Automatic annotation (TrEMBL):
The keyword Electron transport does not apply. It comes from Alloalcanivorax xenomutans. This is Isoprenylcysteine carboxylmethyltransferase family protein. The chain crosses the membrane at residues 20-40, 106-133, 186-203, 215-234. It is found in: Endomembrane system.
Length: 246
């Protein structure tokens, strides 16, 4: 059956859901960078467009931070070996939409793609994201239905999959935890800043015909790398970022 086939594909895609979308976009981004131009060949207008795109990236990251900060342990994590859910999340972001982390991923990724103001790349991103995560979501829903039964079915019927319904909002059960956010989302932040740095350097280099590395972006990239390595060391060697129930 088609449903079973899509779910099986989703199970395989689930294991790579964190890295695969970015990897799928890398060739397209590189090809676009070789021929990118400032928006309407106007550097000032291009910077305004970049601000809009960066706001989208921040919005996507904000959704992930809000969701992760209230999410209990062993649910909605970065587990890759298999699906895990000790509890059914139905409050906070999950009272608005069933897949808030994927919504955040989509919005943030869209912002990164729009930095290159390429209609073809944007269309490719939207289609690739939809095809990939449709299968992941189907596999997750099959797992959650088997795990929680009618409780999941009732929640899913009243909560949209991707377009939030704000009238049904319920405050998060767990208080917000910055420790959980830093532990779970430091890689997301590192990758976002790294992608912006590469795109900005690539765009300026192509348009000006020589390698251009803005000192401000270089400083941001250096700080980003140092923080990434520091947090990774803390996460691996200490329990400073541990939080009860997270």
């Amino acid at each position: 059956m088609l449903y079973e086939t899509l779910c099986e594909q989703g199970e395989r895609a689930f294991r790579w859901r964190g890295a695969a979308p970015a990897l799928l976009l890398v060739p397209a981004v590189l090809l676009t960078l070789f021929d990118t131009r400032y928006l309407f060949n106007d550097h000032d207008l291009d910077q305004l467009w970049d601000c809009f795109a960066l706001l989208l990236m921040l919005a996507g990251l904000g959704i992930r931070v809000w969701t992760t900060g209230h999410t209990p342990r062993r649910s909605s994590g970065r587990n890759t070996k298999g699906q895990v859910a000790d509890t059914l999340n139905t409050s906070g972001a999950y009272s608005l939409v069933r897949n808030p982390l994927y919504v955040g991923n989509f919005i943030g990724g869209l912002g990164a793609v729009l930095l290159l103001h390429s209609f073809g790349l944007t269309l490719y991103y939207v289609l690739a994201f939809a095809i990939y995560f449709e299968r992941v979501v189907l596999a997750e829903e099959r797992f959650l239905t088997a795990r929680f039964g009618d409780a999941y079915t009732r929640w899913a019927r009243k909560t949209p999959a991707f377009l939030p319904e704000f009238s049904g909002y319920l405050p998060a059960v767990l208080p917000f935890s910055w420790r959980a956010v830093v532990r779970r989302e430091y890689l997301t932040v590192f990758m976002a800043v790294f992608i912006i740095f590469i795109i900005e350097v690539g765009e300026d280099t192509v348009n000006q015909g020589t390698v251009v590395i803005d000192q401000h972006w270089l400083l941001i990239a250096a700080i980003n790398s140092v923080l990434f390595m520091a947090i990774r060391w803390i996460r691996k060697r200490t329990r400073w970022l541990s939080a009860q129930g997270r």
